[in-house]
Amino acid sequence: MIVLTGIKPSGAPHLGNLVGAIRPALALAAEARRSFFVIADYHALTELPEPEALLKRTREVAAAWLAFGLDPKRALLYRQSDVPEVFELCWILTCLTPKGLLNRAHAYKAAGARAGGDADDAIRMGLYSYPLLMAADILAFDADLVPVGRDQVQHLEIARDLAARFNRHYGPLLKPPSYRLSVGDALPGLDGRKMSKSYENTIPLFAPADELRRLVSRIRTDSTRASDPKDPATALPFLLYRALVPPERAEEMERRLRAGISWGEVKEALALALEATLSGPRERYQKLLAAPEEIDTLLAEGAARARAHARPLLSRVRRAIGATAAR
Ligand code: TRP
Quick check: 283 and 62 in contact, CB under 8 A? Predict the structure, then answer.
């Protein structure tokens, strides 16, 4: 089985990303025959970030995944823009894609609704074509399985559709990928809404210990007294705690909540669990970022290996479409 994970480098990763994306993807990759981790910097380019920011975030994403245990000798970790075969395949797919298929994409429709009558000026082709580039990311490596959050499911369906279109037209060369929905992507944030950068309610993965404590103290609780029984299903500090500790310890905390425990104690347990989970990765992350040239070297090696996988497939595709003489 070939597993491919795509990560858009768009800012500091948080606890919701760890539980919903990083951990499940690393677990899946550990079982796979081969795993690809693509840092999708050209997807991030659709938002036209500052050039220094794009480079910095790309390195940060690489360091984050390495810090949480990605093994760059087994897995292939690379920067999307270092693999030109992806963009070649993207164009070929573009030529097979009816415009209407992309008109129906949620991200494009949402941006169109926000822009109102100015949509034709406000929406750039990068956003419109985003699903095509993502399909190329996946199809260029023959991926069987792609772990995704709910918001990416439509993109996977588009990738499957495009593989089938190509295969109908030119013969069976592209493998339609399956996807696995990550379960944990509904981790609540400090205020109880889904943890998300846009709500500013996140717990960043690499914040210093005192900052983590400050954030934990801000987590919303109600005014029940220490001895009052508390409902685990709505106890925010507990829901975060549960995502970090083994099931036995979560069950024990659940019993203590039902029996009555102060919010201060629950938060203390959470702060300790956070520090136990994050202190090692934080140290590795800082070490990695202190030597960005080493990250760049790792990424360049990953790209060379990734290209070695994409090139034979692209050669077959080029022959099939008549860009290279068939032997
Ligand atoms: N669009 C994905 C996101 O925003 C990132 C991504 C780019 C991706 N290429 C991919 C995900 C390939 C899976 C496979 O999260």
Answer: no
Distance from C-alpha of 124 to C-alpha of 79, rounded to nearest angstrom: 23
Phi and psi, residue 152, nearest 5°: -105, 0
Render pLDDT for 177-234 as a digit per residue (tens, 0 to 9). 999 998 755 799 999 999 998 899 999 999 999 999 999 999 999 999 999 999 999 9
CA 257 to ligand 1 center in whole angstroms? 39
124, two tokens: 């750039």
CA angle 110, 20, 175 (to 5 degrees): 75
Measured over the CA atoms of residue 301, residue 48, residue 54 and residue 57, the dihedral's sign is negative
Contact criterion met (CB below 8 Å) for 278 and 205: yes
- For the chain, the straight-line distance linking the first and the last C-alpha, in angstroms and rounded, comes to 30
Q: Which residues line ligand 1 (CB under 6 A)?
A: 4, 6, 8, 38, 40, 43, 134, 137-138, 146, 148, 152, 155
Which ligand 1 atom sits nearest the alpha carbon of residue 133?
A: 9
